[in-house]
Amino acid sequence: MDPDPQLLLVTGFGPFRQHLTNPSWAAVQELKKLGSGDKIRLETVELPVHYQRVREILSRIWETQQPQLAVHVGVGTASKLIILEQCARNQGYKDPDVCGCYAAGSCCVDGGPEKIESLINMRSVCKNLAGLDIAIIYSRDAGRYLCEYAYYLSLYHGNQKAAFIHIPRLSNGLTVEKLGKALWMILQELLHQLDTQREPSVL
After folding, report:
1. Is 147 an annotated catalytic residue?
2. Catalytic entry in 19, 50, 157, 166
3. d(CA 6, CA 152)
4. Cα–Cα dist 25/44, whole Å
5. pLDDT (tens digit, 9 = 90+) per residue, 21-64?
């Protein structure tokens, strides 16, 4: 009997400033059209740009569903590239969310590690996907806002089985369909790396 498909959680963000429809959520929705194969059960969730709600949603998902991997997608408003974030930091969240609320204690998890790295080597992912239509780079600074906040929470609750992807804004030359296809390619590489890490070493 084939094993049950493993859960892949992919999130985008809700409305933010001038983005009544956040490009990150629009791109994530494209993944449903492309499919995920028989071995993966894809679940997409729209996260509000709100500290407390993000904490509640992600804590519940990790407690009850335990995804194989959580991939969070956000929009990098000043970027024309796709950016893969390697790590997230616990302290320094000083900007208010869309409701004017702040992160409790300006941190993600009280007493948590100052920095958590993803199990996935984002530099290697960038190298393997150098042929994408959209340029892709690696970063170690996710911006200390809701993007990095969500990333840290998943890294913390999910034992580092998380990734974060910053995508550029949509434009005439960069459609949501094109971004969706790029995200699909990135997800395949992330899952491949995770599977490779779980394979036992052969002596």
Report:
1. yes
2. 166
3. 22
4. 9
5. 899 999 999 998 887 777 889 999 999 999 999 999 999 999 99
